[in-house]
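Task: complex structure prediction.
Instruction: return structure tokens for all chains below.
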Amino acid sequence: MKLLKASEQSRIGYYFLGIVLLAYIFLFFIDPIAMEKALTFAIHVFESVIPVMIFVIVLMTITNY
Amino acid sequence: MEWKTAFIKAGKMFWGMAPVLIGVILLIGLANAVIPSSCYLTIFSGNMFLDPLIGASIGSILAGNPIESYVIGGEFLNVGVSLVAVTAFIVAWVSVGLVQLPAEIMILGKKFALIRNGLSFIFSIIVAILTVMIMGLI
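Output:
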């Protein structure tokens, strides 16, 4: 069995994101209100996660230094 | 290594995990809109022993960066899932890897991989129960 390279893992990540975006597009045609609700909630989660992500990048920079 | 180089390296590492992280957050939004919160409460009944078992099982199956498990765990808490289940979920996510098990067997051996994953699964439940018990004491 071959272990996945970093580039392959990154590609899988983009595939995953693409599938989720397709699900959003699918939901938009079925139930636009639910799609808007999902997107609003996701944006709210993004807003709460961004400060933590900045802190993670700072910590990663310190460990790389 | 200079600060600038260290920052660029960190940025690249973060950029690598960004698609999955964005996907997970979007998926949480989707789940929140489509799946009613009562559904989670049907799965997680509030049982002190059954909840961590289910949480650890889900955490063992799913794989990814630990940060993603914190985001998902936080949303589980918001919909009313018990802390013991979320703790077991996070510990199992980090320590048990069913998806990576074939690779672990290949590199470290079948016996080791199975014992490590099995013990990690059991201890994720014990750690979750102990964490919640200690938090209750504090």
